[in-house]
# Entry
Amino acid sequence: MSKITIAIDGYSSCGKSTLAKALAGKLGYAYVDSGAMYRSVTLHALRQGIIKDHGFIAEQIIKILPEINLSFKFNPGTGSSETFLNGENVEKELRHMIVSENVSKVSAIHEVRVKMIAIQRELGKNKGIVMDGRDIGTNVFPDAELKLFMTADPDIRTQRRYDEMLAKGQHPTFLDVKKNLLDRDYEDTHRKENPLTQAEDAIVLDNTELNREQQLEYVMKLITDLTLSVN
Ligand code: DC
# Structure
């Protein structure tokens, strides 16, 4: 069976990475979380003191881009790929609220996108990859054989993200988590460059009422049908 490219886009906290990870595990494909790349740039800018009080000068972020080196390593213990920023495993820090609150604005900078998209295309050049994000099916891999556009009820999404953060020892309020999701959805769908939109050939997956297993089963069936038809 020849390998395909699977692009998963959608709103914040729709379970894109959960699905992408599970698919990659089942298919023996690589999994790439493109949001982690934009989060890494944001984290680096925060650490350098370039982002202050939720504001920054874009030129200063553009200036530090050459010092950002990203790599990804599969962790067999967690079954997922982890992000390394200049050699340091930052997987945990990337999910902190302060990163979430600034990442949409950082990801709207043209030069940031150019650098991240080049890395993403390089990682996917041999297919056999599942990548999730906001512009994967529309821009990074417009020829992906399978494109999914994920959505779910905002309260369900908030609850899932809130539970995940509590489990990680963070203590946000439900309302702060919800506000962050909705703010990011707005910014990600309204930015000038590569906004989040549904690709014309994407299959919409609303998982409000689906559990992880049902969702995985549904998509695996799509993949089987697809690979049977292309092979
Ligand atoms: O998937 P995530 O929530 O970790 O992504 C964090 C942010 O990164 C998201 O709010 C917008 C940006 N992003 C993007 O602009 N393009 C992508 N392909 C992936 C993420």
